[in-house]
């Protein structure tokens, strides 16, 4: 579920897709990526007007759904662990300071157009059994599509109860044993997840 306080749907919107992946970049460490898509917005025919774009259903339905992602537009995601600071918990604060360029921010967002998102609080809480997690993710939104100088006046709150790390991307020139040895130094216990081969994005 994802909600945008003050928009026309106080109960929020169901999630159509949610993916949590990681990538190993030997020069820097372990990076986390998230990709979220909401279900299409359902308009209330009796409420087609609002005081501004944020609370007008007709504006929201013009853009159909929300995409919030570090992979869809090749945003960097966020550094979760380094050899100097291995992963100690799954509670992250990301992009507290606004980046100068949207592509430098951890995530991009398509909401009421291609807007801007920052100031993330991301927490993964292990579910009983330890193989899946609850995700609590919130951040702030600036409606930059219509105003390039817009400030972060709005908020999103996303939750999911059954999330798993689907794969870790490792460099094509790194063998599995070397990758798992480095990952073991970054994250413990090492999750039993698939290793993908790709040239990582250097950050």
Can you describe what's shown?
The protein has 203 residues and is mainly beta. The chain has one domain. It is built from 2 helices and 12 strands. Strands 1, 2, 3, 4, 5, 6, 7, 8, 9, 10, 11 and 12 form a 12-stranded mixed β-sheet that branches. The radius of gyration is 18 Å and the shape is elongated. The model has no long low-confidence stretch (mean pLDDT 87).
Task: Characterize the quaternary organization of these chains.
Answer: single chain
How is the main sheet built? 12 strands, mixed
Question: Nearest-angstrom radius of gyration?
Answer: 18 Å
Mean pLDDT over all positions: 87
The coarse silhouette is elongated
* Ends apart, CA distance between termini: 31 Å
Number of DSSP strands? 12
What structural class do helix, strand and pairing data support?
Answer: mainly beta
Number of helices: 2
Helical content class: under 10%
List keywords for this structure.
203 residues; elongated; 9% helix; twelve-stranded mixed β-sheet; 12 strands; mainly beta; 2 helices
Brief characterization of the structure:
The protein is mostly beta strands. It has one domain (about 1-195).
List the helices and strands and how they pair.
Elements: E1 2-3, E2 15-25, E3 29-38, H1 57-63, E4 67-69, E5 78-81, E6 91-94, E7 108-110, E8 114-126, E9 133-142, E10 154-163, E11 165-170, H2 176-186, E12 194-197
Parallel strand pairs: 2-11, 11-12
Antiparallel strand pairs: 1-10, 2-3, 3-4, 3-5, 4-7, 6-8, 7-8, 8-9, 9-10
